[in-house]
C-alpha cells in the first residue's frame, strides 16, 4: 500500500472513532453566547429608549377631554426637558422647559401619580380666571363655543360644551358643563409652570395642587398610537397628533 492510500485509510478510521469525552463543542457555546449578547444589547437599548427618549403613557379618566380620551395611549418625548429616571419623583437633570400649550406628563407633587395636563402659564406669568375665561398676563384666552360634547364622558354630561381656545400659537379644544373655579389670581414662580386639564370640570390640576416645578415634568405627549374605548377600538384616533 502506497503512502496516499495509507493516509486515506487513517483518515477514514479517525472519522469512525467516537468523540473523546473531554472534547467540548465550542461552536455551540459560541452561538449561545452570541445570542445572549444580542438579547442583552436589545434589552439595554430598550431601557435607554424608555428612560431617556420615549415612553408610552395610557390616559385614564376624562380630565383632558376632548383632546385625549380615557383609553388613549400616547407616545411621550422624555428627552425634551431633562433626564427623568424610573421610580424617581423628579428629574435628575433638566435642560429645557415646556412651552405654552404643550400637553405634558407630570409627576404630581400632591401624590406622586403621573398625570397629563396642558401648560397655560410659565414662570413669571400672572394667571387668573374671570367668569369662564382664563386670563394670562391680563389677556383673555380665546373661548369660542363649538357646540355640545359628542365624545367621551362629556357626551353623557348634561350641558357639557366644547370651546375652541388658543395659546402660544396653538389652537386646541376644552370642555366644561359647570362654572370653572380657580383660586385668587397668582404669579407663577420661576422654574414652575401652571397647568390645567382641557376638561375643566373634572381635572386635578394647578387649581388644586398649585404650580408644577419643571423638574416634575416627565415629557411631552406627541401622538396617540392606540385608543380603546368602551365599545372597542377607536380606529379614527390612531396615529393622530396631540394638539
How would you describe what is shown here?
The protein is α+β, with helices and mostly antiparallel strands and 243 residues long. It has a single domain, classed as Umud Fragment, subunit A (Ribbon), CATH 2.10.109.10. The protein has three helices and 18 strands. Strands 1, 2, 5, 6, 14, 15, 16, 17 and 18 form a nine-stranded antiparallel β-sheet that branches. It is globular, with a radius of gyration of 29 Å.
Strand residue percentage: 25-35%
What is the percent of helical residues? 10-25%
Global shape: globular
CATH superfamily (homologous) name: Umud Fragment, subunit A
Structural class: alpha+beta
Q: Evaluate the radius of gyration.
A: 29 Å
Write down the CATH class: Mainly Beta
| Alpha plus pi helix count | 3
Number of structurally distinct domains = 1
Task: Give the SSE string.
Answer: HHEEEEEEEEEEEEEEHEEEE
CATH topology name: Umud Fragment, subunit A
Ranges with pLDDT <50 over ≥5 residues?
A: none
Give the number of DSSP strands: 18
Distance between the termini: 89 Å
Q: Architecture, CATH level 2?
A: Ribbon
Q: Whole-number average pLDDT?
A: 85
Largest sheet: 9 strands, antiparallel
Per-chain topology:
Layout: H1 3-16, H2 26-53, E1 54-58, E2 72-77, E3 82-83, E4 93-94, E5 103-107, E6 114-122, E7 126-130, E8 133-136, E9 139-140, E10 144-148, E11 161-167, E12 170-176, E13 186-187, E14 192-196, H3 206-209, E15 212-213, E16 217-229, E17 232-233, E18 240-241
Antiparallel strand pairs: 1-2, 2-16, 3-4, 5-6, 5-16, 6-14, 7-8, 7-13, 8-9, 10-11, 11-12, 14-15, 16-17, 16-18
